[in-house]
């Protein structure tokens, strides 16, 4: 084998090995990665046939987070990560240069949007929705945040409070 | 070679090996230094850049000085400076001191390495044999550097990487002291000076470009393994050992292909192919880095030896031309790191945010109960804060797992999905830099091709 042929063989084999490996990685999806996209919080999400109180509360929380995030111009995911603790909330406010009042207004707006969404989906009766709206306007920020985090206890309280009278009124007014 | 010359050859080879290993030995320690000295990724990169930059600038002047004062004196003094500065690196507790000490270390290293090439012909009997010993000692040091650095970082500390060099460098200087004493006594050096010819421009430019690509391969891969995929330094050292092993295997090809041009071209293509594959990793799995590393390892052995051989071939004095190759290689490393660091630090920060949002979206759309979702969101938020600026390990945020088997299974699936989003995000963040490094490697084919007329 001449040295010229060995040279050509070496270069050819190098080109082939490189192309095969790059091709294999491309075929295996090497260039296809895109992170799971977060949705626009201002776009209304479809409620999925809410059955139990748990499911209603979950979709209510997500709707409220969407509404508040839309008001603040951030993603729902960023807002949710800011809710669980005072420190996380402060980091979030500092990062986006949002004032405490603006934040409180956005949380309340989010909760009101969630009530609207729940009503439209038939998950919340007007008898519960009305007092809930009034309550949201009055409660302190911490309680409003708790409501975003878990609305099930509030729904339970309202339903227990209205009791049999509520069922009767609901039957009369729908 | 006489028996009396052997210790001196071994000492010179050790000196070259340890100095050139220093160019890459800290790569695996960078994440540890980054954490301990509380600095930024861009800041810690200067621990690597400073050494290579000073080596690039000082190699040729150091070779001239070595020829004036005597290579024995230059090598002994260079090794003493290298050892002293190594000690200063080992005891430094802030980034500035560490970087300054690294610069001084490189000055000593440049003197020792170029002087060694001037001393070797008289010791081994011929310039060709001297060049081969010098090149292989340097290649061995550079190839073993990252793995040794990783082991020391994991088993002892990052400081031990520098402290262990002190006795080794001083030990290597001992057999050279005899030559230094003789030079000082006879002062015969100046009368032996020969004019230095022009450096081989094409070979040195190609060396610089290929070195930039190789440095990127090593540096980016280590960061991907440790910072992106959270391997320990020892784990990463084992993984990146594939490259020197492949380089060793690749060096066996040299005797079968006499054409340096063909070896240089094939090597550059393999390095680029490996880097291209690293840019297209389909999953965040360690074994997928092995085939690209094999290509890079075989490629680097072919291209570096072919280009160094060409740059030194038939040129005198060897020390000056060796200085040019050292300068070109280290300049390439610096250019590679300076060009790519801003790209990948920006990309990693951006991808981290995207991956965290994607992970939270996975969490919110999951089937776990709302209370648990929000509790997990809180724990993840704390975890992110704890591992600020890095790709987080999400596992601890999910502990303790729920006792209910159904919920436990849901949470485990969610945790894996979330970590997958983060890992894939981290992997993807390195893709543009690997891609650019592959392009630099391919562009080295231009000077390799242009060198036809000067018989590369």
Q: Which labels suit this protein?
A:
heterodimer, A: mainly alpha, 0% strand, elongated, B: 456 residues, mainly alpha, Growth Hormone, Chain: A, 2 domains
Element pattern of chain B in H and E: HHHHHHHHHHHHHHHHH
Oligomer: heterodimer
- Tell me how many strands of chain A there are: 0
As for the CATH topology of the largest domain in chain B, it is Growth Hormone, Chain: A
> Helix- and strand-based class of chain B?
mainly alpha
| Biggest interface pair, counts | A-B, 49 and 58 residues
Average predicted local confidence, pLDDT of chain B? 83
Q: Give the termini separation of chain A.
A: 94 Å
Shape of chain B: elongated
**Separate helix tally of chain A:** 8
Q: How many separate domains make up the residues of chain B?
A: 2
Largest sheet of chain A: none
Explain this structure.
The complex is a heterodimer of chains A (174) and B (456). Chain A has 174 residues and is mainly α. Chain A has two domains: 1-29; 53-173, no CATH class. Helix content of chain A is 74%, strand content 0%. Chain A has helices at 3-27, 53-72, 76-82, 86-96, 100-120, 126-138, 141-149, 152-173. The longest helix of chain A has 25 residues, at 3-27. The mean pLDDT of chain B is 83. Chain B has helices at residues 6-21, 30-36, 41-69, 71-91, 95-124, 127-155, 158-163, 165-186, 201-228, 233-240, 242-251, 260-279, 290-312, 318-364, 370-386, 405-443, 445-450. Helices cover 79% and strands 0% of the residues of chain B. Chain B has 456 residues and is mostly helical. In chain B, helix 1 (6-21) runs antiparallel to helix 5 (95-124).
Q: Would you summarize the structure shown here?
A:
The complex is a heterodimer of chains A (174) and B (456). Chain A has helices at 3-27, 53-72, 76-82, 86-96, 100-120, 126-138, 141-149, 152-173.
What's the helix and strand layout?
The complex is a heterodimer of chains A (about 170) and B (about 450).
Chain A: H1 3-27, H2 53-72, H3 76-82, H4 86-96, H5 100-120, H6 126-138, H7 141-149, H8 152-173
Chain B: H1 6-21, H2 30-36, H3 41-69, H4 71-91, H5 95-124, H6 127-155, H7 158-163, H8 165-186, H9 201-228, H10 233-240, H11 242-251, H12 260-279, H13 290-312, H14 318-364, H15 370-386, H16 405-443, H17 445-450
């Amino acid at each position: 084998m001449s040295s010229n042929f060995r040279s050509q063989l070496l270069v050819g084999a190098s080109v082939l090995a490189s192309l095969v490996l790059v091709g294999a990685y491309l075929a295996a999806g090497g260039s296809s990665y895109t992170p799971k996209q977060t949705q626009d919080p201002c776009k209304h999400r479809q409620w999925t046939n809410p059955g139990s109180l748990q499911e209603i509360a979950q979709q209510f929380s997500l709707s409220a987070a969407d509404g508040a995030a839309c008001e603040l111009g951030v993603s729902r995911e960023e807002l949710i990560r800011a809710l669980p603790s005072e420190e996380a909330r402060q980091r979030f406010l500092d990062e986006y240069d949002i004032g405490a009042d603006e934040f409180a207004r956005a949380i309340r707006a989010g909760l009101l949007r969630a009530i609207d969404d729940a009503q439209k989906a038939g998950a919340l009766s007007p008898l519960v929705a009305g007092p809930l709206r009034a309550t949201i306007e009055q409660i302190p920020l911490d309680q409003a945040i708790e409501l975003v985090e878990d609305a099930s206890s509030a729904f339970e309280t309202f339903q227990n409070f209205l009791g049999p009278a509520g069922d009767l009124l609901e039957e009369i007014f729908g | 070679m006489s028996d009396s010359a052997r210790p001196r050859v071994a000492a010179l080879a050790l000196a070259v090996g340890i100095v050139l290993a220093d160019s890459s030995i800290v790569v695996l320690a960078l994440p540890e230094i980054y954490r301990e000295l509380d600095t930024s990724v861009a800041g810690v990169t200067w621990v690597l850049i400073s050494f290579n930059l000073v080596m690039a600038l000082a190699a040729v002047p150091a070779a001239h000085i070595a020829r004036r004062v005597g290579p024995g004196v230059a090598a002994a003094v260079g090794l003493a400076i290298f050892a002293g500065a190594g000690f200063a690196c080992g005891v430094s507790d802030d980034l500035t001191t560490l970087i300054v000490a690294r610069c001084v270390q490189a000055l000593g290293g440049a003197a020792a390495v170029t002087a060694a090439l001037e001393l070797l012909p008289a010791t081994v009997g011929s310039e060709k044999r001297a060049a081969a010993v010098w090149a292989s000692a340097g290649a061995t040091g550079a190839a073993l550097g990252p793995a040794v650095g990783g082991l020391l970082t994991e088993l002892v500390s990052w400081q031990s990487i520098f402290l262990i060099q002190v006795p080794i460098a001083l030990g290597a200087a001992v057999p050279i002291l005899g030559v230094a004493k003789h030079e000082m006594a006879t002062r015969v050096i100046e009368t032996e000076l020969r004019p230095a010819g022009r450096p081989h421009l094409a070979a040195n430019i190609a060396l610089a470009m290929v070195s930039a690509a190789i440095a990127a391969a090593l540096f980016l891969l280590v960061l991907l393994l440790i910072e992106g995929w959270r391997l320990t330094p020892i784990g990463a050292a084992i993984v990146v050992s594939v490259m020197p092993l492949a380089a060793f295997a690749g060096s066996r090809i040299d005797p079968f292909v006499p054409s340096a041009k063909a070896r240089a071209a094939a090597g550059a293509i393999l390095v680029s192919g490996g880097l291209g594959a690293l840019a297209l990793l389909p999953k965040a799995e360690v074994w997928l880095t092995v085939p690209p590393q094999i290509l890079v390892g075989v490629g680097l052995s072919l291209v570096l030896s072919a280009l160094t051989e060409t740059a030194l071939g038939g040129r005198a004095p060897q020390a000056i031309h060796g200085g040019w190759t050292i300068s070109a290689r280290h300049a390439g490393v610096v250019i590679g790191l300076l060009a790519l660091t801003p790209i990948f630090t920006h990309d990693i920060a951006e991808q981290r945010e995207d991956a965290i949002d994607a992970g939270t979206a996975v969490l919110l759309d999951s089937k776990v109960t709302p209370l648990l979702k929000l509790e997990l969101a809180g724990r993840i938020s704390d975890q992110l804060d704890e591992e600020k600026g890095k790709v987080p390990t999400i596992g601890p945020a999910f502990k303790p797992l729920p006792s209910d088997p159904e919920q436990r299974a849901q949470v485990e699936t969610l945790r894996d999905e979330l970590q997958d989003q983060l890992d894939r995000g981290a992997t993807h963040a390195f893709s543009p830099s690997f891609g650019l490094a592959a392009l630099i490697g391919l562009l080295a084919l231009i000077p390799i091709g242009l060198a036809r007329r000067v018989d590369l």
